Amino acid sequence: MATTTPMLVIVAGATGDLAGRIIHKLLQIQSVQVRGYARSPEKITESIREHERFSVVQGQVDDKAKIREAIRGASVVICAYQGYDDVMYDGQKYLIDACEELGVERYFASDWTLEYDSLSLGQHEGKDCMLKVKAYLQGKRTKGVHIYIGCFVETFLGYMNVWDPETTAFTFWGNGDEPWDLTTFDDAAAYTVATVLDPSAVGILRFRGDKKSTREIAQLYEKVYGRVPKLVSRGTITELYDFMQAEKQKYVGQNKWLYMTWFYQYYILNGQTLLKEPIHNKRYPNVQPHSMESFFKANDVSNPKHLIRPL
């Protein structure tokens, strides 16, 4: 009886939070083997490192020989890098070039969040890399896959300066009724794996767990936890624009994550990077994403472990 060759999936940037969740879910599928690519493989969770269908290649984002070693034989490469030009653009170009050379069928580009196609170069430097990567993939034999999920729930609570568990306060720019597209890390990982297993999935795919305003989220918090949170206005959307530009100047030459949160907020709250139609949830009905209410019910958000910050 003939045996089916396992599908080999490469996850570059294998030590990241989202990467770990994707790998964990991939390894639940008997027909899949996973190979990680990472600078520091020892940071990968031990249960993954010791799994019989997981292996890892250690290398830098610009090590062409190690990259080729890592992706040889793969049909899918997932990039889970996080950073700026040297990693998110140059690093992804090295991966894409190796995919082309070695005949990889599909390349999943980082970074999942926001409908960045709606941005112009220079508006949001955190997304400039992604715009350039998407353009670089055009015309390649290796097909690009771009997954948009809006804002991760955990970074919305932890990095966006919206939720303060110490004061039980939700803060907002605008009038508090501006919507956010919100998806948990686990649900983003589940949709990614569903897309990996679907060979027809190429181009842009959009998935969303929930769409709620800050005011609606505060109401859900009260409903679930029985505590009335404060709602605190920071100012208008126009004032947010001025504030984010001032913050950028304040931290020039330093870690960009220190001010990038305000750029994310501005281009979400002004509606520019909200997810467009169609939303592709129904394409994979086996994935049942969390709403904000179900996330609150399953997690105590006063616990910092649920608040993720990329600093």
Automatic annotation (TrEMBL):
Residues 8-227 form the NmrA-like domain. InterPro entries: NAD(P)-bd_dom_sf, NmrA-like, NmrA/Isoflavone_reductase-like. The keyword Oxidoreductase applies. Gene3D superfamilies: NAD(P)-binding Rossmann-like Domain, UDP-galactose 4-epimerase, domain 1. One of its GO terms (molecular function) is oxidoreductase activity. Coiled coil: none annotated. The keyword Ribonucleoprotein does not apply. Keywords: NADP, Oxidoreductase. This is NmrA-like domain-containing protein. It comes from Exophiala bonariae.
